[in-house]
Amino acid sequence: MTTVIRQDDLIESVADALQFISYYHPKDFIDAVHEAYQKEESQAAKDAMAQILINSRMSAQGRRPMCQDTGIVTVFVNIGMDVQWDADMALDDIINEGVRRAYSHPDNVLRASVLADPDGKRVNTKDNTPAIIHYKVVPGNTVEVHVAAKGGGSEAKAKFAMLNPSDSVVDWVLKVVPEMGAGWCPPGMLGIGIGGTAEKAMELAKESLLDPIDIHDLQERGASNRAEELRLELYEKVNELGIGAQGLGGLTTVLDVKVKDYPTHAANKPVAIIPNCAATRHAHFVLDGSGPALQTPPSLDDWPEITWDVGDNVRRVNLDTLKPEDVKEWQPGETVLLSGKMLTGRDAAHKRMVEFIERGEQLPVDLQGRFIYYVGPVDPVREEVVGPAGPTTATRMDKFTRTILDKTGLTGMIGKAERGQVAIDAIKEFGAVYLMAVGGSAYLVSKAIKAAKVVAFEDLGMEAIYEFEVEDMPVTVAVDSNGTSVHQTGPVQWHEKIIAAKAV
After folding, report:
1. What is the DSSP string of 97-147?
2. Is 2 helix (H, G, I), strand (E, B) or coil?
3. What is the pLDDT of residue 311?
4. What percentage of the chain has pLDDT greater than the value 90?
5. According to the model, what pLDDT value does residue 430 have?
6. For residue 125, how many C-alpha atoms fall within 13 Å in the half-sphere facing its CB?
């Protein structure tokens, strides 16, 4: 029987799904993080997961984004052969209209992160379009849609290799996961695609991340094919690496591993890996001709009641009176609560500042003795001074770090995940410090921001330089002034502990 699908029903359903996933985690993800939190023995990793869980509950209550990076939209559409369309727009345009409406919703404005002319002017499209859309035409008379919003930090860690047919997928995964660092915000999921061609393997890896977290069910019933055998083996061996939540070292790095495969050429073994971060965002709906398919809000009872106590040994810092030499007392892994004024700046701002320096021009802001936070916040709504404002991946600023520290007198940086060796060497040379804020806890972080204003490069939009005034913003000393990185020491320590415990 033929079904007629109305254009507006798809638009409304896409827009509703994207709003929904911006502030509601899937229940299976919350359950998995809570389970990992309860068994975690690393205090740093446990604290990070506590912040993720608290942030998730706050986002659900406030209906505001859990992460400031509200992602690039990916859509998988299965169109029944017996479907007819009541539409005057192309299907891509219909879906993109849903994206446009979702990201500009006045009650919950989402950050537009998509840039056109990617190797040229990199101009923001202003509404997060276009989406990445995959189609299949299948038997039936419905339209099935999976919508996901993929953060740039985790997408940046995607890897692909064309292995030889005899090469080990497990060995390759265990090699590349440590190389991915913590910029993908573990704990999360790994999606792995094997076979087909290069582009098919990547699509399989992305699509696998839409499946629910069910690794414990698989452990109980056992594997029935090679893909499931790989899931079980990699789940155990990746967690044995000791990378842990936010890369700080701990028992849980992945909550699940997904594997999809497809027949391939006899000479090839394409393998792709794509991680999903702590801001896991995806939804599913089916249109059957009866109207839009809207998401059902979960119960807040689904979220655990978690409290996070910073402890008695926390260091409280007033950024307005801090002297550069004071940071030399700070210890790796130490929790610090920041109050006072800090600046912000991401890739575009750093690139422009370095261009100013190279031309011998004065910067529009004075960085001497100050801290800069790597963030691109969501626009505020209602009474907010700023929208969700979590950290972005710090390694992208590594190539600018030496110049900025040398020429401006900057004291400290705040971002997400580890720093590369070139940045660590510069931090040590100039006696600076790098602090880590928890990725995936943007709404929680924003509550510590009491005032915000743009002070330079306003044309860069969310990448402009802001001045934030914060109160008790929680961070961890990730690289101290001597160049000791907890992202290097923590995973090594916890890998050794895990292996030693297994040997007993």
Report:
1. HHHHHHHT-TTS------EESTTTT-EE-SS-PPPEEEEEEESSS-EEEEE
2. coil
3. 66
4. 92
5. 97
6. 16
Say how far apart CA 125 and CA 112 lie, in whole Å. Answer: 7
Domain segments of the chain: what residues?
315-490
The four Cα atoms 373, 379, 384, 388 give a dihedral, to 10 degrees, of -50
Q: Rounded to an integer, what distance in angstroms lies between the CA atom of residue 381 and that of residue 391? A: 20
Between the alpha carbon of residue 329 and those of residues 12, 324, 402, 432, 485, the distances in Å are 55, 11, 22, 11, 15
* Residue 47: HSE in the Cβ half-sphere, 13 Å Cα cutoff: 20
CA distance 64 to 37: 24
pLDDT of 407: 97
Rg (CA), the chain: 23
Note the Cα 245 to chain centre separation in Å.
13
Cis peptide bond prior to 474, omega within 30° of 0:
no
The model's pTM: 0.92
Distance of CA 433 to the CA centre of its chain: 23
3-class DSSP state of 449: strand
Residue type present at position 133: I
Which residue has tokens 């190279």?
358
CATH code linked to domain 315-490 = 3.20.130.10
Alpha carbons within 13 A on the beta-carbon side of 402: 9
Determine the number of helices (DSSP H) and then strands (DSSP E) in the chain. 14, 19
pLDDT digits (tens, 9 = 90+) for 267-282: 999 999 999 988 899 9
* Alpha-carbon span 384 to 14, nearest angstrom: 26
> In angstroms, rounded to a whole number, what is the distance separating the alpha carbons of residues 29 and 37?
12
| Predicted pLDDT of residue 313 | 74
From the list 55, 70, 210, the residue with the least C-alpha distance to 153 is 70
Identity (one letter) of the amino acid at 493? Q
Show the tokens assigned to 110. 């989402």
- What is the pairing mode between strands 412-415 and 371-373? parallel
Q: Report, as ranges of residue numbers, the positions in the chain whose pLDDT lies below 70.
A: 310-312
> What six digits make up the tokens of 119?
């190797």
Triad 414, 418, 421: Cα angle to 5°: 110
Contact 344, 367 (CB under 8 A): no
> Please, what sign has the CA dihedral across residues 177, 65, 451, 307?
negative
Query: Distances in Å between the alpha carbon of 374 and those of 301, 390, 424, 459?
Result: 34, 9, 16, 17
